[in-house]
Specification:
Oligomer: single chain
Number of strands: 3
Radius of gyration: 16 Å
Order of helices and strands: HHEEEHHHH
Strand order of the largest sheet: 1-2-3
Structural class: alpha+beta
Largest sheet: 3 strands, antiparallel
Amino acid sequence: SMLMLLKLMILTAIAGKKKQNSVIQISTPSKRQLSSMGSQSFPGVQQKSFYEFSILETVPVSCGKAKGGFYTAYAITATRFDGKKFDFLKRYNQFYDLHGKLTKHYGHSEVDNVCRMPKKHLFNTDPVLIQKRCAKLARFLNDLNQLPDVWSLPFVKRFLETGVEDDGEEEDDD
């Protein structure tokens, strides 16, 4: 399936990154594939355990510029309450945008009391700092489970359904 292929591509990229500083291009599963796994509400399931996220690695992704530019993406594994998993890539600014939209929707104090965004560090390749950032971003995503009806918000669904190649194309809706 597409999800298994994506996971294999990410794992291959991670393994290749450890051997050499490789640059990859990855596409995410289609909206149709993700919607079949769903981000809708399920009766009798407490929202606090709807998703569990982990981020174990960063991946350099080619931005397609003629000069061979790339950016860092976070390889995220999401596990739904029923055990179904999917993987996707996100840039830091996509987390930052999500945090801003959540703040606009719920209010600054409620969002910051529940899920804090780690600070941005430009051009820092220190493995310890990167590992801490991955853990903090995963905690940010896991803490979203505490916000009421968060998984039904269109911009949160879109965050889960899109990848790094869709950056900047999100609509500003609640």
